[in-house]
Amino acid sequence: MFDAHDPLGIDDLLGDEDRAIRDAVRQWARERVLPHVAEWYERGEVPARELARELGALGALGMQLTGYGCAGASAVQYGLACLEVEAADSGIRSLLSVQGSLAMYAIHRFGSQEQKQQWLPAMATGEVIGCFGLTEPDHGSDPGGMRTYAKRTPGGDWVLTGRKMWITNGSVAGVAVVWARTDEGVRGFLVPAGTPGFSAPEIRHKWSLRASVTSELVLDEVRLPADAVLPEATGLRAPLGCLNHARYGIVWGAMGAARTCFETALEYARTREQFGRPIGGFQLTQGKLADMAVELHKGILLAHHLGRRMDAGRLRPEQVSFGKLNNVREAIEICRTARTVLGANGISLEYPVMRHATNLESVLTYEGTVEMHQLVLGKALTGLDAFR
Ligand code: TGC
Ligand code: FAD
Fold it and tell me: Which ranges carry the Acyl-CoA dehydrogenase/oxidase N-terminal domain (predicted)?
């Protein structure tokens, strides 16, 4: 039997445990996010702390990490969770991926035993939310130019001064992973909320990712003890290494947003009538649906392939760029095409397609813009560095 929702039989690639995790996250997203997300989106507010605790109870926070209360799931299982959460909303997937793939990953990979014990168990339950501050107002695609500076005092303490911009989870975070220039290169610091001189005002007036907290981080001579630095993180390669994990989750997640839009368009095309017949009977609509299905399932297959490489320890950063570039670009096209199938209803919050399409404008930009990933691939293909 041909399955319109799985035309290539990709489900056959999954094991029982993979399906169980996928189904649990799907059920949570459908019951806890979908009924409310349009309202959160319209209000530009999201109950991030509550959702974090629920995702923690599901075992989804830092699920690909081992120990410290983390689930030790496979990369494919983590990807499936990202897909199911983003099928509801990219903003909630951002909450999940910044917590697990950026903040928790940075502490797990580069932190001391004491830092891991202090933060990771509480972050795995969602009791503490983390954020990851790399981007600055004047340094986005080129984080190597960052100005935030950490000065070491004669007593060994650190004093941080600077600003980070567009930081997901910033205002609700209990701990911020902040990347700063030091006299010995880029280092990462753990800044607990409430530290004098540190504040995280929320950025308002966004027309994308409205169900996600995005903030500025202000560091005004923030004094931190010597052990606030991540001991194993030296140089720009440390934060860029964290990005591989979040970008990998986005490869899957974007296909969740695309799946929702495709399924909405398919259902609409079957039932909406014009000229006395369902619009799905018109060849032009069928062409759109066929093209959407092809790109959607090719994208999911690509995500599986990269997930298997990650599980085998063989995933290269250029391959992550390949996946992020393709899947986000195709996902936004699928959402925009779905929007046209719905006609005027496509612009309404009563349907999810415009919300997903506008969310994906952010996803296209964060975690490396389309152009950055083209240039990473271009460099790998030609051996020539176009950045400088
Ligand atoms: P470059 O000289 O190429 O590299 C500096 C050092 O870093 C290493 N490296 C990587 N290591 C691991 N993984 C990667 N993906 C890496 N990319 C580079 C590199 O080997 C080198 O190491 P070493 O030992 O030789 O020093 O650096 P560059 O300054 O030329 O920049 C390269 C470029 C443009 C690719 C990089 O700067 C970049 O990726 N820019 C984009 C910035 C970005 O993606 N920012 C994301 C911020 S976080 C975010 O957006 C979260 S949103 C999440 C959400 O809400 O879901
Ligand atoms: P710029 O770097 O100024 O780029 C502007 C344009 O110029 C882009 O099209 C870019 O591709 C192009 N461009 C730049 N350089 C080149 C070049 N060499 N060749 C060709 N084109 C080029 N950051 C974090 O650190 N943590 C977070 O949690 C986080 N969350 C975010 C949440 C949201 C909702 C958004 C929108 C952003 C978030 N970001 C976060 C920031 C994000 O990573 C940056 O916006 C992104 O890296 C791009 O930086 P920029 O906005 O400064 O754009």
Answer: 16-127
